[in-house]
Model the fold of this input.
Amino acid sequence: MARARHGSYIFQRSGSDNLWIKLRSPTGRIEKSLGTSDRREAEVIALPMIAKHKAALLAARPHLIWDRKFEPGEHAGPDGGKIVANERELIYLNHNGSYLRTEPNAVQMVVPPYPESSARAVVKFVRSLDDTPRPTAPTKNGDDAILESYLKRQNITGHFEREARATWALFKSLCDKPLKDADYADGRKLVEHFEAEGLKRATIEKKIGWLRAAVRQNMKTKNGLKFNPFSNVVSEPKPGDSMRRLPLDEADMKKIKRNVHRLSETDQLLLRLLAATGMRLSEAFEIDGEMKERGVRYVIVGKKTEQSLRRVPLPGCVLPYLPKVIKGRLFVTEHLDPPDMASKRLGKFLDDIGITDPRKVVHSLRHRAQDRLRAAECPEDIRWAILGHEERTVAAGYGEGFSLPVLRKWIDKIGF
Done:
C-alpha cells in the first residue's frame, strides 16, 4: 500500500524507489513519479506543480463580495420619501422627513469564477501533467558530497538536517558556481538574501553555520577546499539587534517539567544540570569525572578562564539522574561543537513547548539560578563561587575556599 502523510501531496508508492505526487480533481486524481527518492529534492520538484494546482482551484472558485446599495448621500425613496446613505447604513425617511427604518448599505454578490468552471479548470491542469516530461532531480556533484559527509559524520538529523539542506539548496540557487571557485562575495549573497527576509543576525548565523562547518570539515581532508566562503560573512550586530536575556519563570519551568520526557535521556540530564546549577552550557561539556569532599560529590568546571574556574557541588535534585560515580566525560559526543549542537536542540525544545519569547533561551536557566539564589538571600560571594564570574573583578577571589557542604547547601536552593 502507498504510504503518505496526511495532507501531503507527496507519497511513496509501494514497489517504487521514487517519490510520487498526487493531485486530486473532481474527476479523480493523477499520480506522477518525481524521479527521485530524496524527499527534499522531491519537494523542490513538486513545488511548482502544487502551486499551479492550487492556483487553478482558486481561480475557478466563486467569490463572495459585498457592495454598496447606494453611494453616500441623499437618494429618492419610495412614496416620495428620502434615503440618506453613508458608508455602512441606509436611513429611510417618509415624505414628511420622519424616520422609518435603518438598513445596512450593503448587498452580497456572488462573483462567478473565471471563464472555466472549477471542475474544468482543475481537470485541465491535472491532465496536462500527462503531457509534461517526467521531472528530473537536480544533478548532484562533489559539492553536495561535502554536505552529505558532514551531516553523516556529525549524525545531524531531523529539523537541523532539513535546515542545513534548505540553506545549501538556497546557496546553490544564488551562486551558480563550484565551491572551489566561490569567494567571500558569494557567501555574502546568502547573508543578504536572509537579511532581505528580515531574519535576525543570530538566525542568519545559525543557518549559515551549517555550511561553514561542512566546508571547514572538508578543508581538513587531504584534497579539501582551500577557502571557506562562509567564514566571517555575517556582519557585526546592528544597534538593538541583541537583546537582554530574561530568566525562565516558574510558569516556564512547569512547562519544562511537563515535557522534559520528550528529550533524549542525555538532554534530560543536561537540562536538569543546567537548571539546578546555573552553569554555562559549555561548562557542562567540560565535566570529566567527579570528586568528593566531606561526603559531597562535586565537579570542576570553568577551566577556560581563571575567573570562572570553580568547584560545583552536584545538587540533590540531579543526583538520581547521574551515574553512581562519574568516570570520564559526562556528556560524550562526536560533534565538532557539542555546546552549539546542544543549544540548538534545547532551543528547539523550548520553542516546541510554547516558550517562544526570543529573550528566553537556554542561557536563561543561568539567569534563573542567579535570581533564585538572590531571592534565597545567598551572600554575593557564595553566589559567585557557585556560578563563576562573568568578568575579572576584585571579588573574583572572594569565593575561593568555601567548603563543599556550604556550597551544596546554597546550590540546593536553586532546584529544578
Remarks:
- Confidence is low (pLDDT under 50) at residues 1-7, 391-399.
- The CA atoms of residues 53 and 227 lie 43 Å apart.
- The longest strand covers residues 19-25.
